[in-house]
Amino acid sequence: MTNLKELQSLTKHLSILYVEDNTALRNNAVKLLKKFFAHVSLAEDGKKGLDLFKKQHFPIVITDIKMPNMDGMELSRHIHKIHPETKIIIMSAYDDKEYLLEGIELGIFRFLKKPVNVAELSEVLYETVMKIKQEQHERMFQMHLKNIFEYQSSMVVLLQKSNVVLANDTFLEFFGFESVDECKEHLALLGDRFLEHQDFLYNHDETDALEVVKNNPNKLYNIKMKNKEDKTCHFIIKYQPIPEKEGYGVLSFDDITELNLLKLFDARESEKDDVASNTAAIYKFLEIIQRNHAKIELHNYYKGLSITNDSLIASIEDGILDIKTTYMQQKAVQIEQKTLIVSDALPHAIEASNIDRISFETQSISFKTLKFVPTSPITRKTIRVVPSGKQTVSLFVDERKYQGDTEIEDISLDAVKLKLGMLPPGLDKESEVVLDMVLELDKKPLIINTKATLFRKQESKRSFSLVFMFKDLKKSALVKYITKRQMELIREIKGMQNG
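Now predict its structure.
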């Protein structure tokens, strides 16, 4: 049974209209209702009840069905047209299915069959008031969302399929529209406003930009658009579907024009040092990724084995980036002392180094130094591994054997990276050499003899790293070796995780 004191606390600020042609029932009901409601109004038929309702929109109306001048169903129909949110409770001595079906169509909140006892009426009034409170909270919430939608600095639109149905003031101002109706009239194809740029999203060939966004919710994309003053602006956009509202979603635009980042997406400009070290751009991108709760990928290499996991940006404070990631990724970062951050929103991978803190308990890791890396290991087309067991390598340049220390740093199906104590004379880029290598496969020697050309060389304080591309190498044995070596490394890194 409903707690009457609780019901009184809920109804003390509400008013109610009671419509009943039976004087005795009306007098008895008013005594009960006045114990709960701040204001109780009475009417002896539907017509007088409607006149009262027009003067004051009561949140709750209790009415009989059979009454002179206007019956309860007709009264309910008028009330529903005037104020659909009103909760109407029908009380009747009749048990007629026609009334029930008609009441359902009119949105009648409850039907009560006379005679109604106090407990039953109290239960129904409690349900009615709780429904009113719930709807009030929902309206408050929706109003709050509307305020966020309208007044946030980012541009936001509500899409139905690919059509703009609502837009906030920031979006309307950008294009110079005075109203949403004007926006809908002139912006039927929003995707056509996305301008072409390298690695950006725009309509081309058979690609519908908005369809791409909608099919990849919460993924971040870079776009360009021109504003009402014909100025080109740079945005990062994200689409978020509305649950249980098929075809509806919110598209948000983060304006990053003032950072002048468009050149980051130009391959030629990206090679410049000032772009790679553009820390303002790096932190702005990462802040947008964090604000949109978008995932990033961390990439590391453990003895050549790629370790990659989805991660989240936890915080960016005082020049320190804190990332939540997996234990395995943490171990890989700890070994390599750096990681590569990849996201759809970024023009290039970001190298994060100078570790500030690693917490295996909270699965977080912090970095002090960030820089763009236009070319990075994640663009590798082949798998490289660091050899295990015994290995020997001989290098022949112009048929002369190199006599210095030589070590295999890593090997793939297409190339090998050698570490040399000194640089052999006459060895330049694209120089052809002969390599004799002996690796260990299933505790047996694997002999590789092949011609190769020098692809790249890098000098450090005490050694040289040289990458040689194989020529006409039969790869079957090397495929087996690299596959087995990968499995060894996977077991090794998983052992770290379990240990």
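DSSP finds 14 helices and 23 strands in the chain.
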